[in-house]
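Slide 14.
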Amino acid sequence: MDSGRELRTLSGHTAAVNGVALSGDGRIAVSASWDNTLKVWDVGSGRELRTLAGHTGHVYGVALSGDGRIAVSASGDHTLRVWEVESGRELRTLSGHTAAVNGVALSGDGRLAVSASEDQMLKVWEVGSGRELRTLKAHSASVTGVVVTADGKRGVSASWDKTLKVWELDSGRELLTLTGHKDSVNGVAVTPDGQRAVSASYTELKVWELDSGRELRTLTGHSNYVNAVAVTADGKRAVTAAGDRLLHSGELKVWELGSGRELRTLTGHTSGVNGAAVTPDGQRAVSASDDNTLKVWELVSGRELRTLSGHVWFVRAVAVTPDGQRAISASWDMTLKVWDLENGRELRTLAGHTSSVHGVALSGDGRIAVSASLDATLKVWEVETGACLATFTCDAAVYCCAFSDALKIIVAGDAGDHLHFLRLEEPKPNI
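Slide 15: predicted structure.
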């Protein structure tokens, strides 16, 4: 990996190869192909060891247990199959999906598998028995936004299906569906006490009581699509981002959540505003726009403090560190940038995505960032150094992400109507 030099080519499949998994020691690889088979390879020599045949449709993905003994494959025949890698023997078939299964992942101990299907379902399976443990039906259209309550126990997702859903993160259980919007829901935020959610749809916002799912009020005043919403740390105010790049217009509005009253409008961007974040002290807001810039605002006066320039394409999202000193932005130029909010200086660029970056979230201590991209990946970054720590590949473009510090869980929503629940683990030291 140090040089990037090609060592060998493994040939044997008779159609496109869709996925590959490596054993923990890096000695064995298993590939998945449109020729309806999987192949087991000796990585050191490039030798094909065996073929795993049994699927009656394209094989779209494969996952390996940490010890390399068990493989689980996902197929267009609507099933998953569990294989003994050493012998090539099929141990069991996991049936339950009603459409092609596009991907599969295994838990660290290899006991659980999670599958993603075109039937808009995620399923959790017990690998040893083949028993289906639970099904997670996210939404019936793309998931556009997701946030996590401050205690890390619940997530709220927003979708183009005009609804929001409240989830128990530890179990993946859906708690509530919030209905009332007449158009796509583009963004969502929660108050710090976890009692209320604020959602953005078309030209309106709605405030919800999270425990009951009751709609408390509707806020109107924008004349363009509301793309994002952020809430101040005291839960008293919301900042919304709106606009349309085709109309070359964009604005932010500040609202009093208790009364629903509009306090002020912030103008200055020359195109649609896609994202907003508020500093922990509630004094400043940072906006992300299709005019390729970010702007820092003084919320009490509505005064523009500075413009952050450096991206070469639309800026889609922004997050602020807990100390309020830095911001990290996500852009269609395939990068993220870290900014010093006091002087507007660009500190570093995080590069690695191969398509537009649509979402960004920060850990509670501000040391770790998670990015969501149209290249169908999530990346985990060390903010201080810009190092990419991990990459997770999804089945579709990823639009949004959020971070639960309490549970060390990343929640991400994709264009395939799915929510992904990923546990972030500390690397184990080599002994």
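Speaker note: The longest strand covers residues 237-244.
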